[in-house]
Amino acid sequence: MIEHQDLKEVDISIYQIAKKGNWCSGDAFYTVRTDNYVVCAVADGLGSGEEAMDASSAAMSVIKRDHDLDTETIMDRCNQVLWGTRGVVMTILKLDFHSGIIEYTNIGNITCTFYKPSGELYRPVPTRGYLSGKKKKFKTQRIPYEKDTIFLVYSDGLIFDPVYHSIFSKVDTPRRMIDRVVDLMQDSNDDTTILVGKVNR
Ligand SMILES: [Mn+2]
């Protein structure tokens, strides 16, 4: 499944596919735009199949309700509802239109890369662990963005080859970038989610 969202300030394209043989994906994503910000998140429920989906969709429903909060608090609230589930790894981004800053909070193996219009690449170091209701401290990074900043967020179903970096160029649209990655990527035998966003203004 490929989905394109024109969120005015940001264009987002998302690709998602379930592990071969499974009817559902254990990954989940969520995006929302308000007049002040855009929030997007990608989660990977531990394992695969229905129980993984239950965990990742529980996290997404918290974000759907609480996206007005800062990403650290959102992460904390997601953690609270995940007690008794398989658990999830997750990355949340929040682009604030007024400050021009992206808040980034992560736990576990969801990779995030920023491509600045200058060509410079920035990869925040992921935090180890996962959410399963156990008490945890979350760190938030604040990353300035500008027009044509690209962000790429993906679950570990994508085996990222460094040659893919050249795809994420400011001359292209997220739609084209997703198409090109999907053309090149190898089958990984895991649920896969790839989200690409590009700032319009
Ligand atoms: Mn996975």
From TrEMBL:
Q: Which residues form the PPM-type phosphatase domain?
A: 9-199
> What sections of the sequence does the record tag as coiled-coil?
none
What SUPFAM superfamilies does this protein's entry cite?
A: PP2C-like
Query: What domain of life is recorded for the organism?
Result: Bacteria
Q: Which Pfam families match?
A: SpoIIE (PF07228)
Q: What is the protein named? A: PPM-type phosphatase domain-containing protein
Organism (species):
Salipaludibacillus keqinensis
